[in-house]
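Design job #97: recover the sequence.
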């Protein structure tokens, strides 16, 4: 009888141990096969469209460098983006101007008259309805910048929004740029205008 009990106990112990080992192996396989999302800095791009003249003539440009901070692997695209920090060196501004005079003017007479303009910084966040916005710091002012966030099936993410520079107390910088570009920003109606709204379009790839 004792032998039977010992055999039964041994069998039970081996069964429990085997189940635990199988569970551990399954957890390892599940972890290895888990789908994760991580922002790729190398694929991240940011473009902008500013406007001049009363006819709102577009002037396109981009920043050629963006620094991504605290990128993390997450189980969803929203989780990977939520809390992601970035900084954009203003010096990386590029508008592909053939004359070579536009970029220096923007850097000196627009960004140059702002406070703390070496970098534009921000943090991606999502509200309770999963709508995206950026806590954006520009001209020494931190303000909320709502943006549209679209994630495609092939893991590309695009962001679109209209930046109203008045929300960052930057209308003085707009006026400064318009003054130095008065002739170039004058339309057929004889009025010189630089718009305070800037369209932003960015994209990134989630590894």
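Job complete. Output follows.
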């Amino acid at each position: 009888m004792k032998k039977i009990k010992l055999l039964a106990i041994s069998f039970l112990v081996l069964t429990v141990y085997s189940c635990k080992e199988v569970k551990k192996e399954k957890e390892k396989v599940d972890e290895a096969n888990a789908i994760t999302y991580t922002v790729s800095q190398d694929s991240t791009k940011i473009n902008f469209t500013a406007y001049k003249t009363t006819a709102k003539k577009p002037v396109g440009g981009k920043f050629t460098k963006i620094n991504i901070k605290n990128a993390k692997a997450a189980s969803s695209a929203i989780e990977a983006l939520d809390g992601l920090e970035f900084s954009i060196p203003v010096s990386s501004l590029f508008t592909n101007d053939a004359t070579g005079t536009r970029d220096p003017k923007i850097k000196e007479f627009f960004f140059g008259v702002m406070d703390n303009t070496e970098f534009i910084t921000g943090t991606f966040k999502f509200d309770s309805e999963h709508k995206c916005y950026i806590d954006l710091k520009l001209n020494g002012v931190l303000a909320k910048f709502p943006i549209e966030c679209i994630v495609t099936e092939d893991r590309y993410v695009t962001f679109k929004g209209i930046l109203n520079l008045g929300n960052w107390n930057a209308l003085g910088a707009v006026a400064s740029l318009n003054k130095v570009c008065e002739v170039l920003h004058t339309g057929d109606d004889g009025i010189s205008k630089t718009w305070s709204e800037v369209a932003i379009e960015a994209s990134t790839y989630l590894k």
